[in-house]
């Protein structure tokens, strides 16, 4: 009888211990699941909707810079207005992104730091552009220090934008999609255009080198894209790149011989830039 009682007690203890172990496993499982949920909640900022809203910002920064350089090359009041219109559009893009992204969420700290840097640079860009414009209009010359300061602020904005993109939206999955390739190709062309205008403003050899480096980057990127996606067509961007490069080479040649920008050649370049904007 005592043996039976002993066995019952032992069996009961085993069952209790098994129950405790099962509860611990359930709690651990719930804890892991909870952590995963919290992690997901922490990156809720980085939704496809937020990504789509953020995507146009880098191109728009380049377009703002191009608008400023266009005005400084041509002196055309309409180009100056295009600069301010494009800047207002950039502000609108950033406001639209901020509506779709929770910048105060727990997981958004690093992203917000880069985004704040971007915001500060964009604000300063307008201030410096107006300073360059005022000097240009009063003295009919371009203050190289003011121009360099504006260009540096454009670079700061682009660097902050790239850092924010990497923190917020870069999936790190390796292979790029065709649409992502198109974004990189467009960025190379934007840089070539921006540096072309900068060269015509300052005549700096380094600016000219940057133009052709950007075209070279385009060639490397499109080769990789076509190898990875042989059934995808990038012909529209390849065509506009070829046309832009020919136009740039022509306008540079005239500028270097005569020391001034040929009005008709510059108009042709601007027309190609507008065509580029329409396909991107």
Can you name the CATH architecture of the largest domain?
Up-down Bundle
The tally of domains stands at 2
Give the termini distance in whole angstroms.
89 Å
**Helical amount:** over 70%
SSE sequence, one letter per element: HHHHHHHHHH
- Rounded Rg: 28 Å
Count of discrete alpha- or pi-helical segments spanning 4 or more residues: 10
What this model shows, in words?
With 280 residues, the chain is an all-alpha fold. The protein folds into two domains: 44-170, de novo design (two linked rop proteins) (Up-down Bundle); 171-280. The chain has helices at 2-42, 48-54, 56-74, 77-100, 109-139, 144-168, 178-202, 205-228, 235-258, 263-279. Mean pLDDT is 84; it is low at 1-44.
Tell me the layout of helices and strands.
Blueprint: H1 2-42, H2 48-54, H3 56-74, H4 77-100, H5 109-139, H6 144-168, H7 178-202, H8 205-228, H9 235-258, H10 263-279
Helix pairs in contact: 2-4, 3-4, 3-5, 3-6, 3-7, 5-6, 7-8, 7-9, 9-10
Q: Short summary of the structure?
A:
The protein is built from ten helices and no strands.
Please give a handful of descriptors for the protein shown.
280 residues, mainly alpha, de novo design (two linked rop proteins), 2 domains, 10 helices
